[in-house]
Amino acid sequence: MELKSGTALMTQQYAALLRKNFILTWRHKKSAFLQLFSSLFFIFLIFCIDKAVKSRFSSTTAYNNVHDPQPLILPPIPPCEDKFYVKTPCHDFIWSGNASARIATIVSAIRKNNPGREIPAEKVSSPTIPLLAFLMTYPTLAQSSLVKSFRTQAEVDAWLESNPMRCPGALHFVERNSTVISYGIQTNSTPVAKRGSYEDPTFKFQIPLQIAAEREISRSLIGGAIDIFYPNFKWTVGFKEFAHPATETYSVVGTAGPTFFLAIAMFGFVFQISSLVTEKELKLRQVVTYVYPDLEVFIC
After folding, report:
1. Digit-coded pLDDT (tens) for 135-180
2. CA distances in angstroms from 134 to 95, 104, 141, 193, 273, listed in the order given
3. Rounded to whole angstroms, how far apart are CA atoms 265 and 260?
4. In terms of C-beta density within 10 A (0-12 exposed, 13-18 middle, 19 or more buried), how is residue 215 classed?
5. DSSP state of 81
6. What is the pLDDT, as a whole number, of residue 185?
7. Strand partners, 150
8. Is the dihedral of CA 192, 163, 161, 170 positive or negative?
9. Which of 167, 120, 117 is nearest to 145 (CA)?
10. Hey, which residues does 182 pair with through a beta bridge?
C-alpha cells in the first residue's frame, strides 16, 4: 500500500480505522446493538413513564381545561359497593328521623324512585310506635335491605363511628310542621384514589342524595298527605362543576429527564472509552510507529 502524507494520509487512516471498527462491530453484534439502541430505549422508557403518570390522573377533570362542564342530571344513588375501599356488608345510605311516618314515606319514595335501580327496603329492629303503624301499612319497609334508619343524628354518628367504611352517606330529616321539612346530608368529602382512578364524593354520592331528598320532599309537600303520591311528578335538576383551568401535573420529563439523558450519554461514552482503552492496551500506535518510523500517525 502506497504511503501518503498530509491530508491524504489522514484520510487513508480514517478509512482504515472505519473499516477496522466495522469489522470489530460485526464480530460483537450484541455490544453494537446495545450501543446503537440504548439511547432509543431510554427515550422510550421515559416516554412510557410520562404517559403512565398522565393516565393515572385521567379519571379526574382537575388536570384538564374545563371550559363548559357537562351537567349531571338525575344521577342515581349508587350501590354502596361502588365506593372505594368500602367494607361489606354495607348500606347504600342511612337516615335519621324515623319517628315521623311522613319522613319514612319520603325515604320509601327515595328508594322506589331511584333512577335505574330500586333500592331495597330496610329492616327495623325496634321501630317507634308511629313508624310501626306505618310499616303495617307499607310492609315492604320491613324487608332486609341496603338502607338503615335511626331516630336522631347522634345515633347516626355513633353508628358511623363504630362501623367505619360501611356507608357512603347519610340523610337527616326533620319535620318542622306540615309545610316545612328540612334535611341535611352527611358524607365523607375526602377524595380517594384507587389504581389511578379518583372518586369524587360530591358528584358520586352527595349530589344524588341531595336531588333524591329534594325531589321526594317536594312530592310529599305537593301531595299534602303521607299516603298520596304523584308518580308523574317531574323533578329535573342538573349540577355542573365550576369551569377551571388545568392543574399542573407531575412532569416526569422535567423531573427525571436529566437523569435519563445522562444515562443515554453515558452508554455511548463508556463504549468509546472502552474502545480507546483496548487500543491503548494493544499498543496499536506504537506498533505502527515501530513498523513505519517516519510515518505521521494521526489517529488510532
Report:
1. 444 443 334 468 899 999 999 999 999 999 999 999 999 999 888 9
2. 16, 8, 9, 42, 89
3. 9
4. buried
5. G
6. 94
7. 96
8. positive
9. 120
10. 174
- Show the cell assigned to 232: 308523574
pTM of the model: 0.59
Lookup: cell for 13:
487512516
Pairwise CA distance, residues 94 & 111, whole Å: 12
Q: How many CB atoms lie within 10 A of CB 152?
A: 13
The C-alpha atoms of residue 142 and residue 53 are separated, in whole angstroms, by 49
CB burial of residue 173 (10 Å; 0-12, 13-18, 19+) = buried
Three-class HEC string of 169-180: EEEEEEECCCCC
- Report residues of the chain scoring pLDDT below 70: 1-6, 56-59, 62, 121-145, 196, 224-232, 249-250, 252, 284-300
Find the angle CA(157)-CA(113)-CA(215) to the nearest 5 degrees. 70
Give the pLDDT confidence score for residue 151 in this predicted structure.
Answer: 92
Cβ–Cβ under 8 Å, residues 125 and 145:
no
Buried b (16+ CB within 10 A) or exposed e, 271-291: beeeeeeeeeeeeeeeeeeee
pLDDT at 139: 43
